[in-house]
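Action item from last meeting closed. Structure (410 res):
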């Protein structure tokens, strides 16, 4: 698989996947055929481009609905909405993210104190547990920066219930290595597997299921012996209160009448999905992969992030005929704006999680001065109010949301 972090490569991958996005996806998507060439064509593998904002969910859904009926593409559409749902859910319950950060830091400190735990953690992350399937995925994740959805579920389940390691350490391991490492999808999926998202309902990996859905791998089905198949779901003593933040209205040409800088970031690295109503006078790129974790970010994830920003900046500068620059961590952004004689910033929504943690404090003063115009995708604005509890609340609104956003003529 060619993971070139450009919008052109994302569009090319989308085009080649489109014929399979209908019933074929619904029937085949759970099979993990491994990373061998072409093996993963049953799934889109678009997540790194979607996460980086090189592609937008709306354009992916539009393209799919041009080739398939809503019925035939139902499953694929629902999966894209899972991403939007998780984003909206975390926005409304930000304490899930802060308590994850605190739990992760406690768990990392416990590794320092406990040699046995440290050994078990090393075996898990280096693929030396003796559970074949788990070890293969651990190495695949580190080497490629991608894991199939089913493998992520099995891996997280074995991590939590068989190896009995702290789920927050597992979520941190994923976040450091996945090219698509997303605070919402990752944290909430780990919680879902653990039984914390849908309270009392956890996901237990089974060897027969793993063998069945990995049978197409180049080296044959993966084995997984000794799994805890009767473990109880996890519980937590805290509730996470819900509050939908004020969502910014659609941005008009009048909002961007003054010269402004477009700020691209790790989850919005390309201007095209943003559909700006005016041309910026400057494009600024802020990439902060180190904000994912206090640990080391894996090289595929680092390379994808850096490449996405580089290509995003180059293409925005060419499209708008304006200069572009990188905003390095620690530098005051005000100086960059003053140098270019620009007052205002157009800021793609900073999603709850590591992207917001890294940038929001540095933009707070500009926000306070009223110099920031926030851009939010219409699909997110329309979906998030429904992301209050379970996915079902979003699922039953999908047709209405697609219609509201003019996607697929729906
Ligand atoms: C423990 C765990 C951790 C995960 N961590 C992440 C993460 O950090 N970043 C991330 O983008 N996804 C995460 N996922 C969700 C999912 O596994 C990936 O989005 C998917 O595997 C990406 O491959 P794909 O692009 O081929 O997906 P496809 O099956 O082709 O789906 C199309 C798109 O829909 C979205 N999507 C699909 N399944 C899900 C899902 N279950 N939840 C949310 N969005 C989904 C993705 O954006 C994906 O690109 C995680 C899942 C689990 C179980």
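Sequence:
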């Amino acid at each position: 698989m060619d993971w070139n972090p450009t919008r052109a490569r994302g569009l090319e991958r989308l085009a080649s996947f489109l014929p399979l996005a209908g019933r074929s996806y619904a029937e085949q998507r759970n099979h993990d055929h491994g990373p061998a060439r072409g093996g993963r064509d049953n799934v889109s593998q678009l997540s790194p481009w979607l996460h980086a904002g090189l592609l937008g969910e709306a354009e992916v859904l539009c393209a799919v609905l041009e080739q398939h009926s809503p019925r035939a593409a139902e499953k694929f559409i629902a999966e894209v909405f899972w991403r939007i749902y998780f984003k909206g859910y975390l926005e409304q319950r930000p304490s899930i993210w802060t308590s994850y950060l605190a739990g992760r830091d406690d768990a990392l400190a416990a590794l320092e104190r406990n040699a046995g735990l440290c050994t078990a953690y090393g075996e898990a992350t280096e693929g030396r547990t003796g559970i074949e399937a788990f070890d293969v995925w651990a190495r695949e994740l580190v080497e490629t920066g991608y894991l199939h959805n089913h493998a992520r579920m099995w891996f997280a389940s074995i991590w939590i219930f068989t190896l009995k390691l702290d789920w927050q350490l597992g979520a941190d391991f994923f976040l450091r290595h996945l090219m698509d490492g997303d605070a919402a999808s990752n944290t909430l999926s780990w919680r879902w597997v653990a039984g914390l998202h849908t309270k009392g309902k956890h996901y237990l990996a089974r060897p027969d299921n793993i063998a069945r859905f990995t049978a197409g791998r180049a080296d044959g089905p993966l084995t997984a012996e000794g799994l805890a198949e009767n473990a109880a779901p996890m519980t937590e003593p805290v509730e996470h209160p819900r509050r939908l933040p004020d969502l910014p209205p659609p941005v008009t040409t009048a909002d961007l009448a003054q010269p402004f800088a477009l700020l691209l970031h790790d989850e919005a690295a390309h201007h095209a999905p943003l559909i700006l109503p005016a041309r910026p006078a400057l494009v600024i790129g802020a990439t902060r992969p180190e904000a994912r974790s206090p640990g080391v970010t894996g090289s595929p994830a680092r390379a994808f992030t850096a490449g996405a920003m580089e290509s995003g900046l180059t293409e925005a500068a060419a499209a708008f005929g304006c200069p572009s620059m990188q905003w390095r961590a620690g530098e005051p952004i005000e100086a960059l704006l003053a140098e270019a004689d620009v007052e205002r910033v157009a800021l793609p929504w900073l999603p709850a999680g590591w992207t917001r943690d890294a940038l929001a404090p540095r933009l707070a003063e500009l926000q306070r001065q009223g110099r920031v115009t926030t851009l939010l995708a219409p699909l997110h604005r329309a979906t998030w109010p429904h992301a209050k509890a379970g996915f079902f609340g979003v699922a039953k609104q999908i047709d209405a949301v697609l219609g509201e956003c003019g996607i697929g003529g729906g």
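Note appended to the action item: The domain at 7-92+384-404 is CATH 1.25.40 (Serine Threonine Protein Phosphatase 5, Tetratricopeptide repeat).
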